[in-house]
Design a protein that fits this description.
The structure holds two protein chains of two kinds.
Chain A (H helix, E strand, L loop, with lengths): L2 H19 L15 H14 L6 H4 L6 H12 L8 H17 L9
Helix pairs in contact in A: 2-5, 4-5
Chain B lengths: L12 H15 L8 E13 L13 E14 L3 E10 L2 E14 L2 E8 L32 H4 L10 E11 L4 E10 L31 E12 L2 E13 L7 E13 L2 E13 L6 H4 L13 E15 L3 E13 L11 E16 L2 E12 L5 E11 L1
Antiparallel strand pairs in B: 1-2, 1-16, 2-3, 3-4, 4-5, 5-6, 6-7, 7-8, 8-9, 9-10, 10-11, 11-12, 12-13, 13-14, 14-15, 15-16
The chains are: A mainly alpha, B mainly beta.
């Protein structure tokens, strides 16, 4: 393998890593207009924490179930073994989901 | 505030129908009842083995479906019940049926049929929750090539058993948390005079869903989680031991260690499992086994089976997750005369894959696997899977 090839491969890997480390909320805020920065941050944390055990898609398709049920789900997930979710994290994640529930008119109601 | 945990398998056809009816009935009013929820997932996976003309001779290839439906009902703040129906290669099984009683974060009792806590992967065993079509080799449940020669992994996942589990989580501060679990379950099974576990007996109505030797298997799991900004490190250890034959003579011990490093959305996971299993020597070991006695003139009744995996998972853009995995199995010890393995056999597997979100929670999983066997020809497997969750 030549030196230039190695450098190119390293650059591609670095670019991939950089892309994967980007903290986009990845779908949670789709359809929710003008989220304030603190909500974007909250949803970014939610995406990171939820992705630890399952694809964030599971959360995205469940939008519209209401804040009460999100409170229940977040507590359930916090208590999963090695969830990585602290009590403080749970509050931040709930802040994200509350905004989503309040603002997302495209989200279907009553989904579980 | 409602609190509970999940876990997963197995039942008779009549029980299955009753459970299905209960699931359907329970799911119907879910939208109107804040204390009940329904969740489900499906994966249809096609595995091709281009290095074999008839792949079925060495694996459960071609198309397989895995479907699960779960209903959880809360009874107040501290008690909940969960039941899950699973459809896969083994047919329809009850994946979970248990009650949880949560006294505090540090103290939860689980009673019924569930997956006891062991290692890291079983938390994500549902095909909708991991990015490859199949499981790492230590947790393989029949999807690996040469699964019959190897008798699958170390502890097939989801391992579903009857019993009781005590578990909890303690926060030392907001960033450091210790999870623990201790349990007594029926344990693995085999027939009298066995030389390894017989997994079919763990999910056979003919053998009843009861312990086969009047002695529970005991186990425990502990994991420390440290969060520093967007980085989380989890390190844990697990153990399980008991006997597995009806006469309560054949012992086994399983130990495991795991490490998960999360850097934002990038995950590096590694696990190592090892199982020491006692074999019945029988009346004439010279006829029963492929290899003779040791230097001391005695037959070693134990074999050691170890397994490991290391995988890197990272998102690439908004829809794609990439994964690279290296896993393997090694078996050391005597083998039955008709076994195709040797006294020291190994298999290494190299996997590259991607999980692509199509729409909503529908994904396509693609992966290629190269198998390096010590006792058989090398093989290639290609997976294409469609998964969905609700």
């Amino acid at each position: 393998m030549t030196r230039s090839t190695s450098v190119r491969r390293a650059a591609v890997l670095a670019a991939l890593l950089a892309a994967s480390c980007a903290d986009a909320p990845r779908g949670l805020l789709t359809g929710a207009p003008n989220p304030p920065p603190e909500v974007q941050q909250a949803c970014s944390l939610a995406t990171t924490k939820c992705s630890r055990c399952h694809a964030i898609d599971r959360v995205v398709v469940a939008r519209g179930i209401g804040v009460g049920r999100w409170q229940m789900y977040i507590e359930q997930m916090r208590l999963k073994p090695s969830s990585g979710i602290s009590v403080k994290d749970a509050d931040v994640i709930f802040q994200c989901m509350r905004f989503v529930e309040d603002s997302c008119t495209d989200c279907r109601q009553g989904r579980s | 505030m409602h609190r509970l945990q999940a876990g997963p398998i197995m039942m008779s056809p009549r029980s299955i129908l009753v459970a299905a009816a209960l699931l359907a009935a329970a799911a119907a009013p879910a939208a109107a009842d804040n204390e009940r929820n329904f969740a489900g997932s499906i994966q249809l996976d096609y595995m091709a083995i281009p290095t074999e003309s008839v792949g079925r001779k060495i694996a459960l290839d071609s198309a397989t479906a895995e479907v699960s439906m779960k209903v959880t009902q809360d009874f107040g703040d501290n008690v909940s019940a969960s039941i899950k129906l699973c459809v896969a290669c083994h047919g329809i099984e009850a994946g979970m049926a248990f009650f949880d009683l949560r006294v505090a974060d540090e103290l939860n009792f689980r009673v019924g049929r569930f997956t006891p806590q062991f290692g890291s992967f079983p938390i994500r065993y549902d095909p909708a929750n991991h990015r490859t079509s199949d499981k790492p080799l230590p947790y393989d449940m029949g999807r690996m090539l040469r699964y019959s020669e190897w008798n699958m992994g170390i502890l097939p996942s989801p391992w579903v058993d009857n019993g009781v589990e005590l578990s909890g989580a303690h926060y030392f501060n907001d960033d450091i948390r210790l999870d623990y679990a201790a349990y007594a379950v029926g344990g693995p099974r085999a027939q009298t005079g066995a030389a390894d576990f017989n997994y079919q007996l763990s999910r056979s109505g003919d053998a009843y869903y009861v312990d086969n030797n009047s002695r529970p298997s005991l186990g425990a799991n502990a994991a420390l989680n440290i969060v520093a900004g967007s980085t989380t490190i989890t390190a844990g250890a697990s153990g399980m031991f008991g006997t597995y034959d009806p006469d309560n003579k054949l012992h086994y011990q399983i130990a495991g260690a795991h490490l998960v490093l999360q850097l934002s959305r990038v995950f590096l996971r590694a696990e190592y499992l090892v199982r020491r299993t006692e074999m019945a020597l029988g009346d004439d070991p010279a006829q029963r086994f492929k290899y003779g006695p040791g230097k001391d003139g005695k037959y070693d009744p134990y074999f050691l089976k170890s397994g490991w995996y290391a995988e890197l998972e990272m998102p690439a853009g908004d829809r794609v997750d990439l994964i690279a995995r290296w896993d393997g199995l090694r078996r050391q010890g005597n083998v039955l005369r008709d076994s195709e393995l040797r006294s020291d056999s190994a298999v290494l597997r190299y996997t590259a894959g991607a999980s692509v979100r199509i729409r909503g929670a529908v994904r396509i999983k693609l992966s290629g696997e190269f198998y390096d066997f010590s006792d058989f020809s090398d093989e290639v497997a290609i997976h294409v899977a469609l998964t969905g969750t609700l």
